[in-house]
Amino acid sequence: MPAYEFPGGITLLERKDRSNQSPLRNAPLPAQVTLPLKQHTGNPAIPCVATDDAVQVGSLIAKRDGMVSANLHASISGTVTQVSDSAITIDADGLDRWQALPPLDWRTENHAVLIDRLDSCGLVGLGGAGFPSYIKAQIADHHRIDTLVVNAAECEPYITADDLALRHYPTDIMEGAQIVARLCGAQQIVVGIEDNKPDAIRALKVALSDFEQINDHPTSDQHRVNITLKVIETRYPSGGERQFIKKLLNLDVPSGGLPADIGVLCHNPGTLLAALRAVRDGKPLVERIVTLTGDAISAPGNYWVRLGTSIETLLLQAGLENQQLYHVIVGGPMMGVPLSTLDTPVMKTTNCLIAATREELPPAPAESSCIRCGACESVCPVQLLPQQLHWYARAESDDTLEKLHLFDCIECGACSFVCPSYIPLVQDYRSAKQRIRVKRIETAKADHAKHRFEFRQARLAREDAEKQARRQARRGQIRQPSDSSKASDSAALQVDLRSLRIAQTAAKAAVRKAEKTLARAAAQDPNQRHDDLETQLATAQENLKAADTRLTEARATMAQQESP
Amino acid sequence: MSMMHASQLTAKSTNAKSLTAKTFNATPPTAQLMRWVIIATLPGLAVMTFYFGIGVISNVLLAGLFALGAEALALKLRQRSLRPALSDSSALLTGVLLGASLPPASPWWLIGIGILAAVVVAKHLYGGLGQNPFNPAMVGYALLLVSFPTYMTLWSPPQSFIPENLWAQIGGTLPASMLDALSGATPLDAFKHKGEAVLAREFWATQPLPEGALSAWRNVALAWLAGGLLLIAKRIISWHIPVSMLVSMALLATLFYASSPSHFASPFFHLTTGAAIFGAFFIATDPVSAATSRRGKLFFGAGIGALVMIIRTFGGYPDAVAFVVLLMNLCVPLLDIYTVPRPTGQPKAQQQTEQVDRS
Ligand code: SF4
Ligand code: SF4
């Protein structure tokens, strides 16, 4: 398969060889973990343990709140020592006892069970913003998916977590991909990888040829998918979702749309590995592969790290030299953020920690004026006009910014990278976007209040319906209806039943629609909270419950009357 | 948050073993950019000096010095710190470009006035580097051309390295009566003023130009071309503006020439005389005042080329690069608005309906 081109892009210093020379290792078990309640897109999870509770590895400690959220599990066995608003702290007992779920066979189990498993294991996307995987797995409900793409581009410098995962677990990752492909109904899987990872490519090829042999076997079954491997040229930001899809499939994801709109679903290898482990081994998401790198540590490499491990401990174990250290960056040097304190835990989305010296990632020199050289424009993978965006962002002309498609910017930083005047363009865009979002939320406040009110109404109505159902049930046991009114009553009930059924169907559709809207909004804007949409979904769910109750109640009454 | 920068690639490429990047498609920082443009003027300046004498160098030196002085003065008045702005070399570049455009051995006061107009008025009154809508060097040049036409048309014919009256000329003490004697027509001048009735063939037959003038101008143009190609090769400028400008000039010139070879000069003549090459590579490409998008640049260059040809052929001035560049600078905001590229994933039809308005 030929590779296609996305516009723009840059070639970077990769600096991947610092961390990809040594095999994957296990980081020592931490003595204490701090697990933030929000390690994913959407609402923080709600704690379901109390201080002094004993937990094992994989015990559920916080439940997801609303649809866009994720469960959280203990990553070490021991005792809960603190439950705060934002995190749960556990002290280890050093035994590392597991509490796993029963294994499932993904080839035979039905979809609902598998999706439920992904949900209960707290699985989220490990490559980016931590989007709950179970929502993505349900995509087939409202979109037709033909292709699952596995994004192993890993285009940012330094990061090698996916590279190592692919070298060590190529078969598992591809099996995970097949699970997801089965859930979303994809006909083909395309794995894309940059040509700077020859070992991972070799491992994948071996794994794929093994699969082919199994697939050729006549006993192999109905859900066979076509798997292709595509090696792409190394060019930043080929791992950006849209750029990646363009490069692999030559498809453009529409602006403001999702890959699902063109029949594509995108997953990262780490997530697929975790998915397989959740299904096959019943292991909740409690550890991940993290790249530890940078010139300020002496033992760089990739490690399996338990979630909640303190970054400082981790780096010290990898030989951190404090006097060398200039800053620690979470993520890659292009899109990552510097840490303000090392006393931060590893989270589900922490893929890389760079302990950089000053020489290696120096502070940006003072910015000078834009000379309109156009360098930024020629590297922008989205074909925006970074220079004009910069101008209008500083002038705070938000309308013009939106017309110049500010929200199509993927914040890849290619423009800042080449700007000869050292203008921190991406920072400008980020703050402009934030400013515009806040404004939008302000204008939506009235709506939100209205939706909350509707939710209260719906809840009251549902409670009423339930109360009435209970009363009816009690009354039904005591008193038989009088014979005289029976005929007319049952006719009326017939009509009533029919309209109740219609109402229930409508309520179901409303729930599905609200789910779809929310899933979409969250996928597009994973860093935002979507309270308003969650409220609307909850309202629809209340309505559905009320409709269900009324219908069951009417049916019960009907049954009573027909069999006196 | 973009902790890497392209400049690291150049800085470290010599010692970093891990450097696997073979292609390097980034631009060096602003100051270096300006310095490269200055370096690229050297071949042109050298050849000009060879033909027109040391007066070329005196122009450039004086203009460069004045420009630095004017920049410092403007910064002082605007209460900005001197160092960063002075060290970005942009004022020096303006000076060099203006100096190279003036007739050799121009008097110091002429240069001074031009520089004041360029640096103080055209650049700093508009807010300094990056904010000026007009090309500063060309503002200075245009002002001088309309205010002091006698001095601005004083192109001496190719002459000895150190002409006799050099110091008097630069010092501005040369009596006005002597000025005319110095002057020799440039090829463009001569052709312009040949008169309607004279056919091109007859004109050339009269040997209207001083010995060697045509070949001198052609060689100067070639030297500028060399510098310009260097800039493109070093990715300091993109090819869009020079190529579109020269192509549109050549096309129009061919059209005119084909329509009536006896009245119009050949395309080769147009490309190798006057400020065509110099303007295409060094003036029109000033990023600050040119269009930004690639398509915008193509229109910008083509517009300059076409207008230059029209003014050279039908207008009152023999050459028109300065005026035309300023004119096209005026169109840049418009060009920028109408050439907004369609971002990846945006529907195609949208571009026609939804234009960005700058209000
Ligand atoms: S790269 Fe920097 S200086 Fe050049 S146009 Fe873009 S913002 Fe301006
Ligand atoms: S950060 Fe945004 S504007 Fe800059 S290159 Fe990337 S997508 Fe384009």
From TrEMBL, chain A:
[4Fe-4S] cluster 2 binds at residues 380, 409, 412, 415. Pfam families: Complex1_51K, Fer4_7, RnfC_N, SLBB. Its EC number is 7.-.-.-. This is Ion-translocating oxidoreductase complex subunit C. Coiled coil: none annotated. Residues 462-491, 518-564 are annotated as: Disordered. The keyword Plastid does not apply. Residues 478-491 have a biased composition (Low complexity). Part of a membrane-bound complex that couples electron transfer with translocation of ions across the membrane. The complex is composed of six subunits: RnfA, RnfB, RnfC, RnfD, RnfE and RnfG. Belongs to the 4Fe4S bacterial-type ferredoxin family. RnfC subfamily. Keywords: 4Fe-4S, Cell inner membrane, Cell membrane, Electron transport, Iron, Iron-sulfur, Membrane, Metal-binding, Repeat, Translocase, Transport. One of its GO terms (molecular function) is 4 iron, 4 sulfur cluster binding. Its main location: membrane. Its cofactor is [4Fe-4S] cluster. Residues 361-390, 400-429 form the 4Fe-4S ferredoxin-type domain. Binds 2 [4Fe-4S] clusters per subunit. GO terms for biological process: electron transport chain. GO terms for cellular component: plasma membrane. [4Fe-4S] cluster 1 binds at residues 370, 373, 376, 419. HAMAP family: RsxC_RnfC. It comes from Vreelandella andesensis. It is an enzyme of class 7 (translocase). It is a peripheral membrane protein. The gene is rsxC. It is found in: Cell inner membrane.
TrEMBL record, chain B:
InterPro entries: NqrB/RnfD (IPR004338), RnfD_bac (IPR011303). It is a multi-pass membrane protein. The keyword Transcription regulation does not apply. Keywords: Cell inner membrane, Cell membrane, Electron transport, Flavoprotein, FMN, Membrane, Phosphoprotein, Translocase, Transmembrane, Transmembrane helix, Transport. GO terms for biological process: electron transport chain; transmembrane transport. Belongs to the NqrB/RnfD family. This is Ion-translocating oxidoreductase complex subunit D. It comes from Vreelandella andesensis.
